[in-house]
Amino acid sequence: MVVGKSIPRVDAYDKATGRAKYMDDLCDRSALIVKILHSTIAHGYVRSVDTSAAEQIPGVVKILTCFDAPDRPFPTAGHPWSTDPHHQDVADRLLLNRHVRYYGDDVAAVIAEDEVAAVQGVRALKVEYEELPFVLDAQEAMADGAPQIHENYDHNILAHTSIRKGNYEEAVKEPGLIRVEGWYDTPTVQHCHIENHGCFAYEEAGRVVVVSSTQIPHIVRRIVGQALGVGWGKVRLVKPYIGGGFGNKQDALYEPLCAWCSTQVGGRLVKLECTREETFVSNRVRHAIRSHIISWVRPDGSFAARKLECFANQGGYASHGHGVCAKGMGAFPQLYPCDNVEGDAYSVYTNRPAAGAMRGYGIPQAMFAGESHIDDVAKALGMDPLEFRRKNLMPVGYVDGFSKNENYFDTFNQCMDKGMAMIGYARKHEAYRNQTGPVRRGIGLAVFWYNTAVWPISLESSSCRMVLNQDGSLQFQTGETEIGQGCDTAYSQMVADAVGVPVEDVHVISSQDTDVTPYGTGAYASRQTYIGGFSIKQTGTALRERILNIAHEQTRMPVSNLDLVDGQIIRKSDGRVLRSLGELATESLYSLEHSQHITAETTAQIKSNAYSFGCSIAEVEVDIPMCRVKLLNMVNIHDCGTLINPQLAEAQVHGGMSMAIGYGLSEELKFDARTGKPLNNNLLDYKLSTFMDHPDLMAGFVENPEPTSPYGTKALGEPPACSGAPAIRNAILQATGVEFDQCPITPHVLYARFHEAGLIQD
Fold first, then answer.
1. Distance separating alpha carbons of residues 550 and 137, to the nearest angstrom
2. pLDDT < 70 regions, the chain
3. Does residue 744 have a cis peptide bond before it, meaning omega lies within 30 degrees of 0?
4. DSSP code, position 518
5. DSSP 215-266
6. φ, ψ (nearest 5 deg) of residue 10
7. Is 313 helix (H, G, I), strand (E, B) or coil?
8. What phi-psi label fits residue 737: left (phi over 0), alpha (psi between -120 and 50 degrees) or beta?
9. Residue 620 burial (C-beta neighbours within 10 Å; 0-12, 13-18, 19+)
10. Per-residue confidence (pLDDT) for residue 83, from 0 to 100
11. Are 235 and 45 in contact (CB under 8 A)?
12. List of residues 6+ apart from 557 with CB closer than 8 A
């Protein structure tokens, strides 16, 4: 068995030596360059675009404006398509826009022989706007009289869903209840993957070919077809290696525009590559979500009733729409079950950049609000926050009525106990009680809830192909994509065990090409090992059965007495090796009596889901006069089922912890309230955490095999980013006694609250 072992990544050598080919490596240098003119107002209409000066610039080939683009709205979200209109995404995008809805919207495109000419062409364009009032805040956009951003969306509400359980109004009348209320704000942030989004396109044999840095090749193929108004079979989408995505590339970003530009210059090769500044504003961002929570608690620490309202800042376009905010709200009644719950989630159009998927998909926002609130409730009751959690967290045997997910194990207590032991929680929590002085330390904990994959909200389907070579090795291919997280390595281990071959004989085809790659929806929702495992197991079993049937032909042994172990055909009765898999494959292919190429391909539709749980514990040092927080220690503990590759799993956790540190302490995309212009859309002014901001990150695992999974595995990719920020916040609370209702908790935020709490005097 190779599943469960830390083998080296299959792509490590090629990436380390520069052999791995990314989008830009594959694009011929003769490509025309596309540059985009972005709106310099937050809301309004383009009345005219003067192209005369730009047309005179040497090297400019063609200029396309919003007046040239077809009036054909299309969706962009990386969700599986459905024949049911109720499960189709909102189509509110155009290739170029006359009605601009945020500062940075796409107005025109210049196609030129080189980048210099393209940039000069964009600068030479003169745009006349009719400016309209704009709104940047979600709740302000819901108010009467707010600027209308899209037609047919009353009060700019893209969607609203609600949860009602029990009778909240009656429950709050119980005598002796303690009411705890809080508002919690999370910021707009950007994914900041290493490789900016880019793509190139050309026409070939009457079809348009797009090569893109995307997480979702099969989905983007469909969206390009929708945007261009052509049959989806007329589009070919190729995904090479990509340098990270974190959900930003779980959207059709500029592939439709790039494809259309190619069709407008006779099918010539064109390349569209975003700058870092464009990636910040004109790709996707994480939803800023404001949450309002009211808890009614009995003196013994049990909940009588709970209420949540959350308002997601959707930005100018729907992208993933309501899915992010709705998923965040979905955690509320499940993580801490209560008999009487009300919840309302609103996704609201504003004049900010479009918000889409980002690592955690609404759960980092929900956990910051929910886990901060839990510590606030414990403080109000005078209870230890850890003991309050143990009393109220989802119990073993809990089953969600919608997803049918079940909590099979005492995961939360196992994870908290392991994390506490690793970081010395009990000793430090006692030592940091009731501190005084300017510099104080604290330790805080937060848990997380996460659903694996997207069933039953959306389709879950994965296809897999395996082809046996004459030497006994095999090619393996799936539509689920490697985006840097290491899934190809985990897949190779799963394939090796499913078929019965050495892992070094499994050749993973890392790139996807929709002309030849089996269907799969891509990388998102932490679905890769869980969903891909079904099709790998199913296809591997089919290939193995076919191999053993051919072995029966060649050896005359009954199939029931044959096995395939480590690439060898074994007779079970005495363990004798009858022949190698290479010998069998060669004979099968070249046989004059019965020649056959040994392959298998299957599709698995998955109608199950799985909970992933865990916790983060953070230790901080707070310098009150300097308004500075230093993160001293941090541990993340996860139950993601059986680990396929422990070393890769630990790397995933470290990356997620880094994102959580930035989310909690430094990252926020800011906007000018007077113009709507982004103020820090670059890596100098936008404060990503670096290794200098990191302590020694510790990852731990509790391996409870997931019963619904063929390999016992479940979500790990996104959960590490979900609970770190509230753990930091709760550590600051223990150190100072001061609650913080927003992240990032920057020096400016610290100063305001410390001053309000009387810890800093004027």
1. 66
2. none
3. yes
4. P
5. S-HHHHHHHHHHHHTS-GGGEEEEE-B-S--TTTTSB--SHHHHHHHHHTTT
6. -70, -20
7. strand
8. left
9. buried
10. 87
11. no
12. 551, 571, 578
In 91-218, which ranges are E strands?
A: 99-100, 106-112, 126-131, 157-165, 178-185, 198-204, 207-212
CA dihedral 726, 727, 733, 735 (to 10 degrees): -160
Which strands form 599-605's sheet, in the order they lie side by side? 506-508, 474-478, 461-468, 599-605
Q: How many CA atoms lie within 13 A of 390 on its CB side?
A: 10
Measured distance CA(357)–CA(324) in Å, rounded: 7
Q: Which helix (H) or strand (E) holds 373?
A: helix 363-381
Among 519, 454, 523, 448, smallest CA distance to 490 is for: 523
User: What residues contact 276, with CB distance under 8 A and at least 6 apart?
Assistant: 196, 681, 682, 683
* Pairing status of strand 235-239 against strand 568-571: unpaired
Can you list the alpha helix ranges (DSSP code H) found in 454-504? 487-499
Q: Report the relative pairing of strands 341-349 and 303-315 from DSSP bridges.
A: parallel
Tokens 């109000």 correspond to: 380
Model confidence pLDDT, tens digit, residues 207-263:
999 999 999 999 999 999 999 999 999 999 999 999 999 999 999 999 999 999 999
Half-sphere exposure for 47 (CA within 13 Å, toward CB): 7
Spatial distance between the Cα atoms of 540 and 506, rounded to a whole number of angstroms: 12
Sign of CA dihedral 529, 534, 535, 536: positive
Q: Would you tell me how many other CB atoms lie within 10 Å of the CB of residue 131? A: 11
Which pLDDT does position 691 carry in this prediction? Answer: 85
- The shares of helix, strand and coil residues in the chain, as percent rounded to the nearest 5, are 30, 25, 45
Q: From CA 216, how far away is CA 238, in angstroms rounded? A: 10
DSSP three-state, residue 1: coil
- The three-state secondary structure class of 69 is coil
Whole-angstrom CA distances from 552 to 115, 546, 561, 578, 663 are 62, 10, 9, 11, 59
DSSP state of 553: H
CB-based contact 238:217 (threshold 8 Å): yes
Q: What is the structure's pLDDT at 311?
A: 98
Length of the chain in terms of residues written: 762
Q: Is 39 helix (H, G, I), strand (E, B) or coil?
A: coil
- The phi, psi pair for 625, rounded to 5°, reads -60, -35
Contact 731/618 with Cβ under 8 angstroms?
Answer: yes
Whole-number pLDDT of residue 684: 96
Three-state DSSP class for residue 380: helix
Number of C-beta neighbours around residue 174 at 10 A: 12
One-character DSSP codes across 579-625: EEHHHHHHHHHH-SSS----EEEEEEE-----EEEEEEEEEEEEETT
pLDDT value at residue 87 = 82
| C-alpha 199 chain-centroid distance | 20
Spatial distance between the Cα atoms of 269 and 172, rounded to a whole number of angstroms: 65
Q: In what order do the strands lie in the sheet with 44-50?
A: 99-100, 44-50, 126-131
Question: In angstroms, how far is CA 437 from the centroid of its own chain?
Answer: 41
Write the CB contacts of 454 (distance below 8 Å, at least 6 apart in sequence): 79, 80, 460, 524, 525, 527
- C-beta of residue 614 within 8 angstroms of C-beta of residue 657: no
Quote the Cα angle for 218-220-223, to 5°.
115
Whether cis (ω within 30° of 0) applies to the bond prior to 456 is yes
Pairing, β 461-468 against β 439-451: unpaired
pLDDT tens figures, 519-541 = 999 989 899 999 999 999 999 99
Give me the sheet containing 270-273, strands edge to edge: 60-65, 106-112, 32-38, 270-273, 198-204, 207-212, 235-239, 512-513
